[in-house]
Description:
InterPro entries: Cu-oxidase-like_N (IPR011707), Cupredoxin (IPR008972), Cyt_c-like_dom (IPR009056), Cyt_c-like_dom_sf (IPR036909), Cytochrome_c-type_DH (IPR051459), NO2-reductase_Cu (IPR001287). This is Copper-containing nitrite reductase. There is one protein chain. This protein is 21% helix and 31% strand. It is α/β, with parallel strands linked by helices. The strands form 5 sheets. Strands 1, 2, 3, 5, 7 and 11 form a 6-stranded mixed sheet that branches. A 6-stranded mixed sheet has the order 12-10-14-19-16-17. The radius of gyration is 29 Å and the shape is elongated. 39% of the residues are buried. Bound molecules: copper (II) ion. Residues 94, 125, 127, 168, 170, 176, 181 line the site of copper (II) ion.
Amino acid sequence: MSRMLPIVLSASLLAAALYATPTLAAKAANPAGHSRALAADFGAPQGAPIEEKLVDPPGVPAPIHRNHPARVIVRLETREVVKEIADGVRYDFWTFNGSTPGPLIRVREGDTVELHLRNDPNSHMTHNIDLHAVMGPGGGAVSTATAPGHESVFTFKAMRSGVFVYHCATPPVPMHIANGMYGLIVVEPPQGLPKADHEYYVMQGDFYTTGTYHEPGLQSFDMQKLLAEQPTYVLFNGREGSLTGDNALKSGVGDTVRLFVGNGGPNLASSFHVIGGIFDDANVEGGTLVNHNVQTTLIPAGGATMVELSTPVPGALLLVDHSVTRAFMKGAMGQIDISGPAQPAIYEKGPNTTFVSKAALPAQQSMAASAGDKAADGKRVFTQICSACHQGNAMGLPGAFPPLAMSDYLNSDPQRAIGIVLHGLSGKITVNSTGYESVMPALGPQLSDDEIANVLTYVLNNFNNKGGTISASEVKAVRAAGPAK
Ligand SMILES: [Cu+2]
């Protein structure tokens, strides 16, 4: 029996070889594996070597207008740098060229890339690079393990067009990625990409800090959270706020925006969505298949996409991971500011009028009369409405809802709370030395003057607050005065 085995094996190997030959031959004749590739594009590089001009994210190198393959020299340096991951929160990032993500590399299909990887002498770790655009062992990682103060070089031919992730693949790999070591390499097809008015570069990543979300100071890497795949932060471009406020991406009315979007992970897949936008084109998984009119596109960990959207009206569009807890409570939020004239035919805000308000319905008004009734009514309103956000114990939720218990903000000015409940509150506030930047909705339309007076009196006299009374006539006056500003 044992002598049969080699015969059976070699017969099947032979069959496999015969079977494989036509496929291999076909590949050799058409090395790109798809019809658009020109055989000449895979010949020797032509002309003098080109030094790739790298720029910081969210910028991208200029489009390629070459019609022949070239030798492109790319220089990356791995650096370990302490930077802010959110306002007042610092983290020891491991990076390519000092940024998370590392710079976007842009080459043409058929180019030969000469990749130089330096490791900053001040690094503590060895690093390497695995580029998903490489056909070869480790995507280059096996040729680039680089100790601090050293440089490695390897070359590869960019055999396939697409948007590809690169990352460090030094053990423990998840830790090197979680610390920010990833970026994108775009391999343009021979005919180039269609023109877009604006091009930007965005990469999502999940981060694991020992402190809770927004806990200030220098935070270290948390291996337990990594193992549980429960990130503290989920971010675009390595920092909360990297693409919002003054850092927002820009577009103009009537322009098109192309986003190269990658997901470094290490763990989470991204449901990438632009609030207020539709992807005219989305390159599925960063490959050659283009989908149209897409609302949300999935970007796997270690994957990428290229999306194009039109921006026909002015205003702000928001980039999010539509697993929206990550967007609103872990930082995965970006912004595109579109400037230009209003386009009422496409988007127009109508008036906002009161449809019905509880205050206008005397029959439904709180009937609480005595102090005991008022306290019970306040408790009911608190439990039915306020506790949904501020929590049943009034302690709030870190990073999302401020506490009403022992709140210095509330106790220092209880009258101010009337306007907050009536008209809502947004923007930055500080409660018990912790910053909050969130939105409380206006509750004036659904709560009567009595109910607001009762709930505020209840809150002031419970949860270790300083006591005091808010009367219905005070609420009535603030309601009549209308919202501030
Ligand atoms: Cu590394």
